[in-house]
Amino acid sequence: MSSSENNSKNRNEKKNTQYLRYVILSFFLFFLTWMGYRHQLLGGGPTGSPTVDAMCPFGGLESIYSWLKNGYWLRRIALSSFILFIGAVLATLLTGRVFCGWICPLGAVNEFVSAGSRKLGIKNIQLPYLIDKYLRYLKYAILLLVLYTTWKFGTLTFRDYDPWAAWMHLSAGWSEFGYGTAVLFTTLFLGLFIQRFWCRYLCPLGAALALISKFSLVKVYRDKSPCINCGKCSMVCPVGLTPDKDIVQRDGECIACGKCYSACPVDGAMNSGHKSKNYTFIKTGVAGLLIFITVAAGAKLSGNWQTYSSPPPATGVEAVNNVFGWMDLEQIAKTVGLDIRSVREAAGLPENTPTDVSIKKLPGVNDEELKEALREYLQKNDGGANNSLPNPQEMRGSITINQISAEYMIDIKDLIRELRLDENVDVNVPLKDLLKPMGREVQEVRDAVQTMTDKQH
Q: pTM score, two decimals?
């Protein structure tokens, strides 16, 4: 093969690396977005569509402590989350952060926003070195905070702020907008000016994989001999690294996207491989993808793939935490230990309400309001009076102070005093509506109730 033909082949391979990567990123983004839409239509459970949490690797890391300690996954988490986390870890150990650069759907959203900004002529902002350096530590702090609070309180404390969960619930409309939605659109806006802003500075899963990738077999390295020090590799790096100055990328920030390789005008200067053996970026990316898919497919074929989990054993009021929107009235009655007539009575449903249709599909029925009605009913009827109280950290913003008092057996006046509220406050207004005008958050109430119940017990 002549020199010109070889150069043409190398140029095509560099272009094809990015084309293939964008195709793979697009596939995972559209597939999982479609799954999120299906979940809004069908609900979860054995006959529905998986929740966003069951299809996210980070959920496996968040819930592993609960599983090791109690033998149960956290609410909304399933075995599938842990399997996907294992797949991402194995792919990272062997091929680097291919999950972040080739698979992650939220990473795809961020990358496509950055690509769009370049098309619009928006100039990228380069933060000063020290600011950029210390901002990168923020995602590690977030990772530690999320794991600590999740393991301590036994609930997904990050979920309300998770931009990926917010993305997956966009099809549900305004009712699902919250802090996570604000984080999503804020980071995407910042991503117009700083490539992959979320990935660089805030992503807790990215932080975990960055630590793991320090030990990966395959790394990006630069051969000094053919390198002409043009700096093009650094200019295109989506996470702001300097491959033109580094021989081997060892700091874990590299997402193995291959953009440095595709931009390099000299053959052999930028490489992806193990020590001196070059595997090419396409081979590295595809290998990482196949490892990730093989782990999930192996679990599926072996019968170990499950996107919903059996709830922990519970009775009385505590059992209401095991009620999900995909359940029908018969399943709910069995879960909380009531007959169907009592469930209808508690929820204020007419006698002709079908018992074999999931409550998410029943017209005019809100699953969270139904659960709160069940808790109140069980309290009034001494159901669960001697059982453990529900986890305060699972408290929804739609609950009222009056309902909190009944559910957690807390004196209303003591609760109002603990929250530093006016003694004439309306105790029948949902917390989110009560606190929003004050600039306060529901999490304050969760923490206050947690403190008060801990003192009682």
A: 0.76
